[in-house]
Amino acid sequence: MADVLEIRPQESAEENAQQMTDGFHLVIDALKANDIDTIFGLVGIPITDLARLAQAEGMRFIGFRHEQHAGNAAAIAGYMTQKPGICLTVSAPGFLNGLTALANATTNCFPMILISGSSEREIVDLQQGDYEEMDQLNAAKPYAKAAYRVLHAEDIGIGVARAIRAAVSGRPGGVYLDLPAKLLSQTIDAVKAKQSLVRVIDAAPRQLPAPDSVKRAIDLLKGAKRPLVLLGKGAAYSQADKEIRAFIEKTGIPYLPMSMAKGLLPDTHEQSASAARSFVLAESDVVVLVGARLNWLLSHGKGKTWGNPKKFVQIDISPQEMDSNVAIAAPLVGDIGSCVAALVDQVGDDFPQPPKEWLDAVSEKKNKNLEKMAATLAKNPTPMNFHSALRVLRDIVKQNPDINVVNEGANTLDYARAIIDMYQPRKRFDSGTWGVMGIGMGFAIGAAVTSGKPVLAIEGDSAFGFSGMELETICRYELPVCTVIFNNNGVYRGTDVNPTGGKDVAPTVFVKDARYDKMIEAFGGIGYNVTTPEELEKALKEAIASGKPTLINAVIDEAAGTESGRLTNLNPQSAAMKK
Ligand code: ADP
Question: For the Thiamine pyrophosphate enzyme central domain, which residue ranges apply (predicted)?
Answer without folding.
Answer: 214-343
